[in-house]
Amino acid sequence: MGGTFDPIHLGHLVAASEVHTQLRLDQVLFIPAGNPWQKDERSVSSATDRLEMTRAAIADDPRFSLSDIEVLRSGPTYAIDTVTELLERTPEAQLHWIVGADVAAQITTWHRWEEFVRCTSIVVVNRQGIEIGQLPFSYTEIQMPEVRISASAIRQRYAVGEPAKYLVPELVDSYIKTHGLYGYAQDNSNA
User: Fold this and answer.
1) Residue 31 burial (C-beta neighbours within 10 Å; 0-12, 13-18, 19+)
2) Which residues lie across from 2 on neighbouring strands?
3) Strand (E) positions, 33-120?
4) What are the CA-CA distances from residue 139 to residues 26, 91, 114, 132, 174 (Å)?
5) 96 phi-psi bin (left φ>0, alpha ψ -120 to 50, beta other)
6) Do 180 and 45 meet the contact criterion of CB atoms below 8 Å apart?
7) Can you give the pTM of this predicted structure?
8) For the chain, what is the radius of gyration of the CA atoms?
């Protein structure tokens, strides 16, 4: 499960849990993007911060693991490079790439996307109000309980000092506050 994870939130964890259960996967590997090239229009937290928030979020769930493969790679982060490297490391693995319905239609804008969808099985998780529509590649659709959480709304809450309890795991909330991410300041009395 790749993504910017800025920050990782309960919607990501519910999606990963549902895919793990419904597809009977051995493991869900979380891969925070090192340099998410399609996010150039906005400021993104450091790769190290996003990696550490993800580590904190999944720490107590043995079904989940973390990879720093994209964080350690220099230059833009391309999913095809990640999948290729993972397959070189474990050629016997059957890989599934988990995306939300909002991201599924964007896959055709990804670097070497046609090669990417041939290398891995695409798993699309439903998102409230988003129709998947016709896609030029095969995929498996997974239904999960509706979770209306967006990372941008969470960042905004921290920026204005509103609480984000129950939107992100407690350890992620603590990390954000300790490191002053998203404009959070220690003197925000409401958070």
Assistant:
1) buried
2) 31
3) 64-66, 96-100
4) 19, 21, 13, 11, 36
5) beta
6) no
7) 0.90
8) 16
Q: Which residue has the tokens 């290398």?
A: 119
Local structure of residue 144 (DSSP, 8 states)? -
In the numeric block, the tokens 């990879």 are attached to 67
Asked: is 2-148 a CATH 3.40.50.620 domain? The reply is: yes
Q: Are 66 and 54 in contact (CB under 8 A)?
A: yes
Q: What is the maximum span of the chain, computed from C-alpha positions, in angstroms? A: 52
Q: Encode the chain (191 residues) as per-residue pLDDT tens digits.
A: 999 999 999 999 999 999 999 999 999 999 999 988 766 667 899 999 999 999 999 999 999 999 999 999 998 889 999 999 999 999 999 999 999 999 999 999 999 999 999 999 999 999 877 888 889 999 999 999 888 889 999 999 999 999 998 999 999 999 999 999 998 866 554 54
| Edge-to-edge strand ranges of the sheet holding 96-100 | 96-100, 121-125, 139-142
Structure tokens at 50: 């996003």
Domain ranges of the chain: 2-148
Which phi and psi angles does 141 have, rounded to 5°?
-100, 130
